[in-house]
Specification:
The structure is a single chain. The protein is mainly alpha-helical and about 260 residues long. The protein has one domain. The protein contains 12 helices and 2 strands; from the N terminus they run H-H-H-H-H-E-E-H-H-H-H-H-H-H. Strands 1-2 form a two-stranded antiparallel ribbon. Helix 5 runs antiparallel to helix 6 and helix 7 packs parallel to helix 12. It starts with a helix and ends with a helix. The N terminus is likely disordered.
C-alpha cells in the first residue's frame, strides 16, 4: 500500500490530471499512446484483416481513387531515394511531390558510382520494404508502435520536402495518422493500420506495372530503370523485373504474416 501512495505523490504521475481543457485531454491521450507504443496489443479478428486488405486493393485498382491515393506511395518512393542518398554520402537532399502524384529527389554529390546507383534503385522497392516492416510489427501485435514509426518517418520526410504541395501532402498524411492514434477506437486504429499496410504492399506493385507499360511505349526514358541502365551493366527492363519481383515477394510474405 505504501508503494502505491508514493507513486501517487510523484510529480510525473500527477502531472496529467492537473491539466484541463483541450490541452489536458490531448496530453492524456498522447501519454496513453506513448505507453502503448512499446506494449503488445491483441491481434484483430481475421475478418478485419481481410476486409482492410480488400479495401486497399479496391483503392489501388480504382481508376478514380488511385491517382489521388498514389501520392502516399510517391512519398515513400521518394523517401527511399532520400534515405539511401543520405546513407551513401550525398548532400543537400531535396524532395518534391507534385499534384499529379509524381515526385523527384535531387542531391549534391557524384554524378555516378555505387552510391548514385543505390539511390536510384531504392525508390520502387521502398513501399514494399516499408509495407513488409509494417506487416512484421502488426504480426507481433505492435500496432501503435507501427503507427508512431510512420509518424516519425513522415517527420523526417517533411524536413527534406521543398515545395508547398509536397509539404501539404506530408502534413495532411501525418495529421491523419496522428488523429487516428489519439482519437480513434482500438478497432478503427487496427483497421487503419492494416489498411495502410495492405495499401503500401498492393500500391508497390501497380507502379512497377505502370513503369513496364510506359517503357514498352517508350514513354519513360527518364525513369529510375533507365537511369540504372546508364549507371550499371544491366538493361532497364531487367531492373523493372527486379522491382516487380521485390514487390510481389514482399506482398506474398506479408500476406502470410498478416493472415494467420
Amino acid at each position: 500500500m505504501a508503494r502505491n501512495v508514493e507513486v501517487a505523490r510523484h510529480p510525473a504521475a500527477i502531472a496529467p490530471p492537473r491539466a484541463s481543457g483541450v490541452a489536458g485531454d490531448l496530453w492524456r491521450r498522447a501519454d496513453g499512446v506513448w505507453h502503448h507504443a512499446f506494449a503488445t496489443q491483441p491481434l484483430p479478428p481475421l475478418w478485419l484483416v481481410v476486409c482492410s486488405g480488400v479495401l486497399a486493393l479496391v483503392v489501388v485498382a480504382s481508376a478514380r481513387i488511385w491517382p489521388v491515393a498514389r501520392t502516399v506511395v510517391t512519398m515513400v518512393h521518394e523517401g527511399g531515394h532520400a534515405v539511401v542518398a543520405l546513407a551513401t554520402g550525398q548532400r543537400r537532399v531535396r524532395v518534391r511531390l507534385y499534384r499529379d502524384a509524381a515526385g523527384e529527389t535531387v542531391s549534391a554529390g557524384a554524378a555516378d558510382g555505387l552510391g548514385v546507383a543505390l539511390t536510384a534503385a531504392a525508390g520502387y522497392p521502398a513501399p514494399s520494404v516499408l509495407g513488409l516492416g509494417a506487416a512484421a510489427l502488426l504480426a507481433v501485435g505492435h500496432l501503435t508502435g507501427m503507427l508512431l514509426l510512420g509518424l516519425l518517418l513522415l517527420a523526417g520526410l517533411a524536413i527534406a520536402v521543398r515545395n508547398p504541395y509536397g509539404m501539404l501532402a506530408v502534413l495532411v498524411t501525418a495529421a491523419t495518422v496522428a488523429a487516428v492514434c489519439l482519437y480513434a477506437s482500438a478497432v478503427v486504429q487496427a483497421g487503419f493500420g492494416y489498411a495502410m499496410t495492405w495499401f503500401l504492399l498492393f500500391g508497390s506493385v501497380r507502379p512497377v506495372m505502370e513503369l513496364h507499360h510506359q517503357r514498352h511505349r517508350a514513354l519513360a526514358n527518364r525513369s529510375d530503370a533507365d537511369q540504372l541502365a546508364r549507371l550499371t551493366w544491366m538493361p532497364g527492363g531487367a531492373w523493372v523485373v527486379i522491382f516487380g519481383v521485390v514487390s510481389v515477394a514482399a506482398l506474398a510474405v506479408s500476406a502470410r504474416w498478416l493472415i494467420r
